UniProtKB/TrEMBL annotation:
<feature type="transmembrane region" description="Helical">
    <location>
        <begin position="235"/>
        <end position="259"/>
    </location>
</feature>
<comment type="similarity">
    <text>Belongs to the TDE1 family.</text>
</comment>
<protein>
    <submittedName>
        <fullName>Uncharacterized protein</fullName>
    </submittedName>
</protein>
<feature type="transmembrane region" description="Helical">
    <location>
        <begin position="206"/>
        <end position="223"/>
    </location>
</feature>
<keyword id="KW-1133">Transmembrane helix</keyword>
<feature type="transmembrane region" description="Helical">
    <location>
        <begin position="61"/>
        <end position="84"/>
    </location>
</feature>
<dbReference type="InterPro" id="IPR005016">
    <property type="entry name" value="TDE1/TMS"/>
</dbReference>
<dbReference type="Pfam" id="PF03348">
    <property type="entry name" value="Serinc"/>
</dbReference>
<feature type="transmembrane region" description="Helical">
    <location>
        <begin position="96"/>
        <end position="113"/>
    </location>
</feature>
<feature type="transmembrane region" description="Helical">
    <location>
        <begin position="119"/>
        <end position="143"/>
    </location>
</feature>
<feature type="transmembrane region" description="Helical">
    <location>
        <begin position="169"/>
        <end position="194"/>
    </location>
</feature>
<feature type="transmembrane region" description="Helical">
    <location>
        <begin position="7"/>
        <end position="28"/>
    </location>
</feature>
<keyword id="KW-0812">Transmembrane</keyword>
<dbReference type="GO" id="GO:0016020">
    <property type="term" value="C:membrane"/>
</dbReference>
<feature type="transmembrane region" description="Helical">
    <location>
        <begin position="374"/>
        <end position="396"/>
    </location>
</feature>
<keyword id="KW-0472">Membrane</keyword>
Amino acid sequence: MLDKIHLVYECGLCLWTLATFIVSAPGINEKFLETTMVKSLFTCQRIMDEKTCREVLTYEIFYRLFLVITVYHFILAFILLPNFPAIREHLHNECWVFKLLSLAAISIGALYIPQHSYFIVYFSYVVLIGSSLFIMFQFFLLVDLAEALGAWVTEQQEKGSKRKTSFKVMLVLLICNSYLLLAVSLGTVAYILVVASTQNCIWNDIFIVLILGASFISFGITWHPRIRTNIQTEAVILPCAVVIFHSVFVMVLALTIQGGRGCNLEGTFLSRQKISTRVHLKSIIALSLMHTAIVYECLRSSRDSFTLGLLKDTKTDEENLSYSYSAFHFLMSTGSMYTLATLTNWYGPIINRFSQNDKSSLVGLQADWKPAQIVTITTSCMPLLLYISFIIYAILTLDPHIQSQVLSGGSIYLPLEPKAGCEVESKNTFSPHANRKNYVESIRNGALASSGEILRVGKSEQDYPSQKQGTNLLVRCERVRDTSVFFYHFPREICQSYYGGRNGSNACTVIAVLIAKAFCCGNLDLPETDLLDESWINLYSSCIAEGNRLYDMVINLKKQGAIYLSVEDVVEEFGDMLQIKNLGFSLPVSFVSETETATVSYQLERLRKFNEKSAVIFIKDSRSGVFLFFKDGPLLFADSHPYGSGGALLVCSSNVNELVMYLAEILRVTSLKGLGALSPIYF
């Protein structure tokens, strides 16, 4: 829901920009300026010729149009700051009549600002500040987008995509686009050095070398083992290309508006020779990058990123969510100012301060506006320097055991022991699709759908914590609001895919059978405390390690590559070694069925009555887990697959229906109506 609302605001900005495009189009611009309304509101000073008058009036109208959208989003950002969740959510997502009326009122006010008020003089400096902020936001958003695509490529390679052909095509396109961005960036730099590299432009050459050097340095140090581990080459080329492309683009922007003939690329395809507010290649590229960054921000619905993850050694307080809305509207406000600066080609106003008789004080535009030069040069350097500083900070301060888990959103081992009497703190990570409406209470309860979404997606908005106390790993209990369901989410290293530095595994069925044996034959206490008992942590670790070993042994013997093992296959291969007495009939079940006896809930209720301790392997969509229960006691579900940005999962509940509903939420893959199988196993 929230993603759609954000896209509505983004579409509004696109339509606003489109309106300015139409106003500035040849033929339409002249007719628009001759309309009665424009003539009644705006006039030119008598000293200007007709062409200059037309450019100046277009410039002034653009400023008033974007003052409206800038002020509108700034007011929303300010109003949404107070921490009243219900009111804030209602105002942000609804109240459209009130917001449209407010927009209309601001528009009328902007049109009737007196021309002789020096409004443009003051607002032009505000626009420069807002534009520089947005350029930095845009840099980090585009880097995050590239990192997200790279992470997706790595994840698909680890899992092995079912649609191999389409995946290979997308992978080739990703690599081609990466090299295309690099080629365009380096080609543009070469063109500048050939066209505008003279003895008088030595500072240009130094500036170019510094920017390119910083870009390649930032790319090189991101390969440090504390920043990336097991990263695929394809996952790194695109972020590198984006860093270089964005840096070169802002550098070109700075060079096209500087003073000095021959050094400012006048008359080239990168800049206009004559002052004009018409759209050209530079503005199209700038607005394309801008809207790509904003759309990504709308769709990812997260409050964290790869770049901010570099600083995530500090605790994040998620109970104050006010900035989720306010920060978005502040981003839109700065984006509006950046759009205005782009459409006006970063021109500065020339003011006639001595005319008292004319209605207008604006008499011309200057292309080599000093404040714009300073801002663009600064903002071409600042994002890169911040990015490099973040990476160096992460390398110097992050615990070596954390490595890239901080950056990828994984669970984190904290080397500090909690103070006596203090609760174990949690670390927060974020997801491209997690719901921003998850409010974390003091006991960190989560709603069923919310926590299901957190575990289902590729990265979680809340990473369920693990800590090291001395040499012991602590895994904390998380409860689902308004249900009897609670669960323990292991760190990423404790799951079948990544245990012991592994990179992918199909051993889930073997591991599920091993967990079933340990539960049925061992003397395990029910996990009911805030911290998971060490015996359960050891059980998971040993079963995952042994399960992967046995699976690899089968693969090596059969020499068939990665294969999926059913319960019957596991019993056939390891039945004697694991002392399996009997495997019950496989029962086809589904989460949703018109026939009650064919549901997971019904069959679990039936099976739990037969033995004091029971284990039932559950398989759906080639994923195996195991239900564990005492007769008339709580029901457990153990799964060794990685969930969200963390690792394996242990879910507990005294109510079968509530547990099944929760599993239906987090295991939703193709369809809830698809058949799974329950296979009782006895030792």
